[in-house]
UniProtKB/TrEMBL annotation:
DNA-binding region extent: 9-110
UniProt-listed SMART domains: Trans_reg_C
Alphabetized PROSITE patterns for the sequence: OMPR_PHOB (PS51755), TPR (PS50005)
Entry keywords, A to Z: DNA-binding, Membrane, Repeat, TPR repeat, Transmembrane, Transmembrane helix
Organism: Tunturiibacter empetritectus
Database matches in Pfam families: TPR_17, Trans_reg_C
The OmpR/PhoB-type domain, residue ranges: 9-110
Gene3D superfamilies from the UniProt entry: ABC-type transport auxiliary lipoprotein component, Tetratricopeptide repeat domain, Winged helix-like DNA-binding domain superfamily/Winged helix DNA-binding domain
Transmembrane intervals: 178-201
UniProt name for this protein: TolB-like protein/DNA-binding winged helix-turn-helix (WHTH) protein/Tfp pilus assembly protein PilF
KW DNA-binding (keyword) present: yes
Amino acid sequence: MASELAGVEQPIRFGEGYEVDLRPRRLRRGSHVLKLERIPFEILLLLLEHRDEIVTRDQIVSRVWGQGVFLDTDNSIRGAIRKLRQVLKDDAETPRFIQTVTGQGYRFVALVITPKEPSAASEPEAAGVPTSDRDFMSELDSWLQARRLRLVEPDQDRTAEKTTDVGTGQANRKSYRWLFVGAAALLLVACLLSFLVVWGWRRASNPPTHSQGKIVLAVLPFENLSRDPDQEFFSDGLTEEMIAQTGKLNRDRLTVVARSSVAKYKGTNLAAKEIGKELNADYLLQGTVRRSSDRVRITVQLVEAQNQTDLWTESYDRELKDLLAVQDSVVQSIASQIHIALTEEQKTRLANPRQIMPEAYEAYLKGRYHWNKRTADGMQKAEHYFQQAIDSDPTYAAAYSGLADCNSGLAWHGFKSPADALPKAYAAARKAVEIDPQSAEAHASLGLVFSHGWNWAGAEAEFRRALELDPQYANAHHWYGDYLSIKSRHDEALAEASRALELDPLNLMISTWVALRYYQARDYSRAIEQGRNSVELDSNFAAAHLLLGEGYVQAGLRSEGISELKRAASLSRGSPLYTAQVAVALAAAERRREALRIAHELETISRKRYVSPYGLAQIYAALKSDEDTFKWLQAAYRDHAVWMEYLAVDPIFDRYRSDHRFQELLRRIDLL
């Protein structure tokens, strides 16, 4: 049967209405497409090819993984057979489809119906003709055949009636026959001309997909086959790296869906068509990864979402140090399959991938894994791993960029003092740009550090350079929008924030900062609406509750604001800046004593660890305690507190805008 399947295009039917489509590589039951991963599908094909025969584990290993594999294949085979049985609703004890033959392998026991192979005579005609056009030609051929029979049969009937005639009668019959043959030939030529006109019209009215618009590719979360939860960082990190690399292809022709937008499809059972519809994606890249010591096996599959066609599948068994070469090979294959032209620079880079130290790459992936959590604990762990990656490979530009972002984030959220975090962030971002001047991530990281350091011209230049290098880098739009708000350029800020959200609609930080853009522009109703959207994305994300609570307070919804801000402070695990916002809300609700108690507690804590003076200034401003407000604002200026960058747009200080002391502070930080 193996030889039979090789040329089969029609579905293979078995059991109770199950069908295997070989060209799209999918399993159906009726009109319903059943979700089946690559390995179980390959095993199903192997069993179908050898129906009623025992298929050994060695045969499965050879078919699925190839020879010389170092992996724990027994568990993988058992897992794949289990998935097959689940999809087919089969029972190992009383099998209807797959029988386990103890100590030997498996046997497919159900009735299998395979279609007949197409005749050799028809193959040359079909070769190179698209399916839709082939169908049309088939219809035309049938019609022509019917017309030919209708023309010839009357003549044949008359001939049968006059079999006894000879001489001139026979000559007349020959004349008639040639007349009919000539007429049939003329009609055939006319029909062929009509066919060519209609075929040309059909092709013109149905141009190749994406000839005008952008192609959208979604890289789905890679499945961790290592069966070790501690290796999740590796599969998640590899997914993010593939998104980053494919995103650097022809940006005029290709859009790659952002990481946070595909994260929810981890372990999903949705069909490719449904995922494509939800993400508005034309193609899906899905894969599996198995890590074993310093070796890794990666299998990737490119699927056309609309018709669920498997366009390309490849497996790579490499040492960890060659992982970048694997990524580059995958990127080249994707570009070829979806017809994305590569520049000469890209071809050169992809043909000459740099090797990486396995320990450096592993540490980097762990850093990204923890950074994406955007929690205090996550950022602190990420900082440790990025530094570990740099120690292993001092030329690792992406690790320097990650280290810079961690320190910027820790300073923004108030978990590190600016004196401690910002010099480290600046040095790391500078180094990243020095190593890789063409990295949009490096320039955006440097722009963020400049913004926190009140170097406004430097910040704008770096953000613009990042967007020039990669217009689809969502974080660059996100941070540039923050800078524009700081400079009171609110319309531009909202445009950048909205673009970031469009590129990465499920990114919690980006979604939350859209609310911040509205809040600083004094559009509190939209700030609340966007804050609610962010909370709906993840009810445990502290910053989302922070912005929602602040919007409530400024809109006069004090009780709701207090509730949200308390939730934010609790989720932040002790951020003094978040705690300060609770006191601001209490002061706005005229609960002065409670607000003062929090202020005094923060002052006490500041003697032991860093507490941003800006938060204390906000509390006293809400309490309308003018002297204390300016005392702490002066301290925030001396401390270079990160939130001082918002001084010109923070609604909490609106009552002080005309005060000469306030205006002097704005001049000092070049915001007036």
